[in-house]
Design brief:
The structure is a single chain. The protein is built from six helices and 20 strands. The chain has helices at residues 2-17, 44-57, 60-63, 162-168, 214-223, 322-328, and strands at 41-42, 67-70, 88-94, 99-105, 109-115, 119-123, 126-130, 135-138, 144-148, 154-160, 173-175, 211-212, 232-235, 250-256, 265-267, 271-284, 287-291, 296-299, 305-320, 333-335. The strands form four sheets. Strands 1, 13, 14, 16, 17, 18 and 19 form a seven-stranded antiparallel sheet that branches. A six-stranded antiparallel sheet has the order 2-3-10-5-8-12. Strand 16 (271-284) and strand 17 (287-291) form a beta hairpin. The protein starts with a helix and ends in a 9-residue tail after the last strand.
Length: 344
């Protein structure tokens, strides 16, 4: 028996030397599905004073971007850089008179304004005003910088697909200065539904519109037909192609009526949820989370999810990596009756 064990060790040593390893001994070969991660919430009332410290401690001139990342409690180290799945969320701060100098990268990024006014993001040279609730896109390899001409601090939610590029090894960063901007179109071209110019220029993988004004989204929500559970939901899209506004990061806005829970849903995609307005609670797996304005929640994959507003208007901004899974052909989603599994 010992001779057989010695022989087996010799065989494995020869395999290892040749970088060959037996699949039947892999800990991942027949591993059962992992237990879904639990949700985590960042309360705005708790993190806003901590963001104020970032405003006091440093400046964009010193650190490029004054950003605090929202790192999942399931991360093993800061190098993981994920909030939920392929989604990394953070909060960026800019003071009056400050400039965050231009750069670009292969990671897609978006900005959702949380507080203040008077700032703008320039995307490939096109100025995009930043007001509460506005969504600003900075798609992959688009030059972008931030400038503040107002009189009060401006804070916004940053969301990027950094984890995807970390896994693929495709993360590339290029600092300024900018040598040449590609041509862009005025966003006002797309404010009339059903109308677009005959000459659009070269098509790109992302929307030619970079700023999605909150007031326009609210109007669309109010006119949208209700889902079976009473919620109203819209998706941010490219006004030309109808595809997602930006690949890899799907953005939605939900409007909930008070005391009417959404139908329980489950997906193998991950999402981050920002409470734009209103109060309520969510059942996320076995957890019930109470939330209020500007709270940020993770919606980890494979949990049954249901949300209930307790006051209105209640609107939720949801960013998900479902497009990544959909492109790979492995997206799984299901919904059950609104009467089952509602938050208590």
């Amino acid at each position: 028996m010992s001779e057989l064990n010695d022989h087996a060790k010799q065989v494995r040593a020869r395999w290892a030397e040749a970088r060959l390893f037996p699949l039947w001994e892999s800990p991942n070969a027949h591993k059962p599905p992992p237990v879904p991660q639990r949700t985590h919430a960042w309360r705005w009332t708790e993190i806003r004073p901590l963001l104020q410290l970032a405003l006091e401690e440093t400046s964009p001139a010193a650190v490029e971007r004054r950003v605090l990342q929202l790192i999942s409690p399931y991360s093993q180290s800061r190098d993981d850089e994920f909030t939920a799945g392929m989604v990394l969320a953070a909060v960026q701060c800019l003071l009056p008179g400050e400039v965050a100098r231009p750069h670009r990268h292969t990671m897609n990024a978006l900005r959702f304004v949380l507080e203040g006014s008077g700032a703008e993001t320039l995307v490939d040279g096109k100025p995009c005003r930043m007001e509460f609730g506005d969504l600003i896109l900075t798609p992959a390899m688009c030059w972008h910088e931030h400038r503040h001409h107002g009189s009060e601090p401006v804070l916004w939610l940053d969301v990027l697909d950094v984890p995807l590029h970390n896994w693929l090894g495709t993360g590339v960063f290029q600092p300024g200065p900018v040598h040449e901007f590609p041509p862009t179109l005025d966003d006002d071209i797309f404010t009339a539904a059903g109308v677009q110019p005959l000459r659009l220029g070269a098509s790109r993988e992302h929307s030619p519109m970079f700023r999605y004004a909150y007031q326009d989204v609210v109007r669309a929500l109010q006119k949208s037909p209700a889902m079976a559970d009473g919620s109203r939901r819209v998706r941010y899209v490219d006004p030309v192609s109808g595809k997602l506004a930006m690949p890899m990061l799907e953005c939605q806005m939900w409007q909930l009526d008070p005391d009417q829970p959404t139908a329980p849903e489950r997906s193998n995609a991950n999402a981050v949820c920002l409470v734009v307005e209103g109060n309520g609670r969510s059942r996320i797996g076995d957890d019930i989370v109470e939330w209020g304005p500007l709270d940020i929640l993770t919606l980890p994959q494979d949990n049954w999810l249901s949300h209930t507003a307790s006051s209105g208007p209640c609107r939720l901004f949801v960013i998900t990596d479902r497009d990544v899974l959909g492109r790979l052909g492995i997206l799984r989603e299901e919904t059950r009756s609104p009467t089952l599994g509602n938050p208590q």
